[in-house]
Amino acid sequence: MQFNLIAAFTIFIGSYLPLALILAVQDIPFSWWSRPICKIEYISDCDFIPFTNTWIALSFILISLLSVLFSNITLAKVTYPFKVKVKVKSSKGIPNDIINYVFPHVVSFMGISYDTPEKLLGFLVFLFWMFAITYKSGQIIMNPLLLMFGWKIYEATVDFNGHERDVRFLIKGDLSPGEYNIQKVQEFYIGQVNDND
Predict the structure, then answer these.
(1) Are 43 and 20 in contact (CB under 8 A)?
(2) CB atoms within 10 A of CB 180
(3) How far apart are CA 107 and CA 125, in angstroms?
(4) 20-77 pLDDT tens trace
(5) Alpha carbons 10 and 109: distance in angstroms, whole number
(6) Count of alpha carbons within 13 angstroms of residue 121, beta-carbon side
């Protein structure tokens, strides 16, 4: 099974929610932070949207937030139509690809802001290249924000029809030895506990 391009891009963009928040905070003028706290009797005079580039800041946050939620829902609805089962013999948790994930966030502190459209455009080109590389290499599912919803990636030794293999396994929760229904998505096995036995 392969993610279609739209679903894959949605999962990819969802991993950049922290970057959207970083850029949004950088888009708030420093003078806004020194304003007094808004009181209920003066609520009509309050400014609740402090961003210099409001539409860009809010759009990026909303798109990435919806993408994270969509990613979680999509993975939770993976079907197991062929009743393929594997027996997990051993497993160990593996960290997500933190370098690829952290790099764009570090870059955001090096001069990228919504006020410099030429740098922002260059960064968008970089993101599209990153997407193309991760999609073609089968790594699109390595989204660290899925940890917030309980998804974990494991390196597991499994018995697959009498043949032992080492695979990467994505499951919601902990992966313990036992039998699982699986669906292969790109380079990962997505698993579900087999409750039939």
Answers:
(1) no
(2) 22
(3) 14
(4) 888 888 888 888 777 777 766 666 667 677 888 889 999 999 999 999 998 888 888 7
(5) 24
(6) 3
